[in-house]
């Protein structure tokens, strides 16, 4: 049976043949389910697939774009590379594992790349094209006009949101936006448009915003010190963990509370991210003696049991810190789990303390290199776009 989305509608007699051909061609690969921008498999001749080993396959574009991107990856990840700038750049790109072709189709070439999202349980993804120009120096007048007409504000704003996919913790579903959403953003609305990516339906993920700023600043630092390449129509891929350590529940009275979930790396079931099963063992943690029967019953009432592997506490919703909001276990033990207490529990959430040194799970990488050219100076257009984006992100964080 062919993977979903691979059978294109055609005449009844040719549909099964098309499915069989697709199955043989893909050789166990499936379309990348969480792709938010670019050429989509099934809609375009080229598209991104996911290999059974968890890597992603980007089909090589027609010349000169495809060979140019292949040469760029090969140069940056060459085993013989000694250029300090390129060695630093390796950390800012998805890892490159060479090329791949389906058996019997050696001319059908794919770039084999690291799947940045694979380590995430509920990946929130945004693709932003960076720079003041989305066309390269060799583009025809027609091509230039075409690109400028798509987003006339590119030169002023310096970046364009190509798409996003955001996990909503309230509905346990994803909300997506395509390139038309990004093109609708103006100088006045771009901050609000980008901030949508960081809102999980219950709150703004300021922790993810802050970490994204730090990572984009690292990329800016690389560009400030390199003068050998100019990047056009290249993007930044943003990913953060949507479920993180929080899940959120809407209570009977409409109050929204957050509840701590199992930290990353401790999923007990076969969580599946983009068709690749992700299994990990549960670590046996220490349980403090203070966690007694009352706490277990409180968590049970919330229909989200607190982990027995960690110390569980109860705090009033709306307080900014744990200290001063914790109700003592002794007080709780004198109350009975009756109707009166149930009503009081509507504003209480369970949580698992986390390592304060461990920040949010966030990744930002540079992608799309079909329009990278040698230069003799700084890439001012790309630098402008990075600074503009950082300014927008900082504004979101501070507001």
From TrEMBL:
Keywords on record: ATP-binding, Kinase, Nucleotide-binding, Transferase
Enzymatic class: transferase
Ranges for region Disordered: 1-21
GO terms assigned for molecular function: ATP binding; inositol tetrakisphosphate kinase activity; inositol-1,4,5-trisphosphate 3-kinase activity
Superkingdom: Eukaryota
An annotated GO BP: inositol phosphate biosynthetic process
Record-listed E.C. numbers: 2.7.-.-
Keyword Cell membrane: no
Catalyses which reaction(s): 1D-myo-inositol 1,3,4,6-tetrakisphosphate + ATP = 1D-myo-inositol 1,3,4,5,6-pentakisphosphate + ADP + H(+); 1D-myo-inositol 1,4,5-trisphosphate + 2 ATP = 1D-myo-inositol 1,3,4,5,6-pentakisphosphate + 2 ADP + 2 H(+)
SUPFAM superfamilies, A to Z: SAICAR synthase-like
Any one Gene Ontology cellular component term annotated for this protein: nucleus
Membership in a protein family: Belongs to the inositol phosphokinase (IPK) family.
Protein name: Kinase
Organism field: Xenopus tropicalis (Western clawed frog)
Gene name per UniProt: ipmk
């Amino acid at each position: 049976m062919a993977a979903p989305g691979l059978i294109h509608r055609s005449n009844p007699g040719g549909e099964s043949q098309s499915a069989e051909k697709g199955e043989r061609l893909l050789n166990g690969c499936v379309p990348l389910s969480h792709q938010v921008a670019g050429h989509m498999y099934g809609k375009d001749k080229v598209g991104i697939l996911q290999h059974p080993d968890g890597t992603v396959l980007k089909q090589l574009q027609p010349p000169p774009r495809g060979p140019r991107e292949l040469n760029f990856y090969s140069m940056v990840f060459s085993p013989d590379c000694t250029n300090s700038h390129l060695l630093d750049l390796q950390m800012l790109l998805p890892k490159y594992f060479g090329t791949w072709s389906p058996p019997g189709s050696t001319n059908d070439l794919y770039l084999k790349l690291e799947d940045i999202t694979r380590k995430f349980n509920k990946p929130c993804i945004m693709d932003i094209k960076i720079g003041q120009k989305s066309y390269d120096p060799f583009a025809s007048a027609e091509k230039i006009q075409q690109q400028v007409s798509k987003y006339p504000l590119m030169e002023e704003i310096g970046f364009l949101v190509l798409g996003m996919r955001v996990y909503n913790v309230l509905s346990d579903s994803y909300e997506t936006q395509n390139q038309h959403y990004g093109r609708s953003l103006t100088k006045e609305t771009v901050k609000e448009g980008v901030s949508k990516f960081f809102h999980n339906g219950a709150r703004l993920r300021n922790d993810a915003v802050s970490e994204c700023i730090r990572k984009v600043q690292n990329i800016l630092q690389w560009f400030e010190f390199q003068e050998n390449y100019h990047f056009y129509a290249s993007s930044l891929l943003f990913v953060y963990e949507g479920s993180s350590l929080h899940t959120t529940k809407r209570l009977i009275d409409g109050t929204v509370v957050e509840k701590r979930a199992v930290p990353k790396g401790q999923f007990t079931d076969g969580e599946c991210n983009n068709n690749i099963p992700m299994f990990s063992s549960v670590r046996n943690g220490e349980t403090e003696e203070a966690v007694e029967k009352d706490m277990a019953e409180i968590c049970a009432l919330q229909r989200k049991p607190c982990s027995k592997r960690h110390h569980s506490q109860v705090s009033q919703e709306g307080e900014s810190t744990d200290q001063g909001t914790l109700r003592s276990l002794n007080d709780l033990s004198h109350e009975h789990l009756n109707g009166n207490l149930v009503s009081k529990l509507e504003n209480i959430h369970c949580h698992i303390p986390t390592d304060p040194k461990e920040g949010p799970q966030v990744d930002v990488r540079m992608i799309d290199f079909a329009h990278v050219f040698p230069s003799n100076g700084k890439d001012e257009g790309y630098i402008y776009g990075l600074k503009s984006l950082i300014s927008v992100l900082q504004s979101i964080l501070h507001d």
